[in-house]
Amino acid sequence: MNFISILIYLLVGLAAGIGLIGMSLEINYLDISGYISTLSAMVTNSPLTRTIIFLCGCLIILIFLRFLQKGLTRCRREKTIKTETENGYISVTLTAIEDMIRKSLSDEDIISYIKPKILATRKEIISYVRLALKEAVNIKDFAESMQIKLKEKLQALLGNEKMLKINIEVKKIAFPRKYAEENEKEDDEEGPLRKY
Question: What are the residue ranges spanned by the domains of the chain?
């Protein structure tokens, strides 16, 4: 069930509830004044009742938010890339491709953090890969080699039917202590007013 169908069910249920209450008020099936006077007496006389009503309202809101989060996650998780062969269809989930990217880049000693995200359209597959590096390297050459490596693996996995784009974003470079200490010594040798 995707997000739009969940939203439609919630809106239809809300409209049906409001419609039923309105119809019962119109045909005088409900005496709303009795309910209102009883509820107002309960709420104004007891702080415990007010606290319970507040906590129930918070619980309903949290359950609704959790329900929406599950719906969005399920929609994202169920998205697949389908390929047709002579013998039938092959479907690969986006999470499987993300796991393959994570596994293939985890072999690199330079990378300390990998977070891939795949977006698939009818014409192309776009891969966003966020990385954190352990040491300073030529980022352009490194990213280009990773793009070529990932493109070859994805084409081997999915075939050449769709256009592949691999976007690599380096979020952080963690320098080793030895490199940082050498830079500090060089900076100290230049003098205290070196930046002016």
Answer: 3-77, 88-179
Helix axes 3-26, 47-77, angle to 10 degrees: 140
Higher pLDDT, 57 or 103: 103
- Report field, pTM of the whole predicted structure over 0.70: no
Distance, CA of 34 to CA of 49 (rounded, Å)? 18
Q: Please check whether residue 97 is in contact with residue 157, taking contact to mean a CB–CB distance below 8 angstroms.
A: yes
Q: Which has the closest alpha carbon to 148: 131, 166, 163?
A: 166
**Cβ pair 97, 159 in contact under 8 A:** no
Domain 88-179: what homologous superfamily?
Cation efflux protein, cytoplasmic domain (3.30.70.1350)
Q: Scan for tokens 């698939």, then name that residue.
A: 120
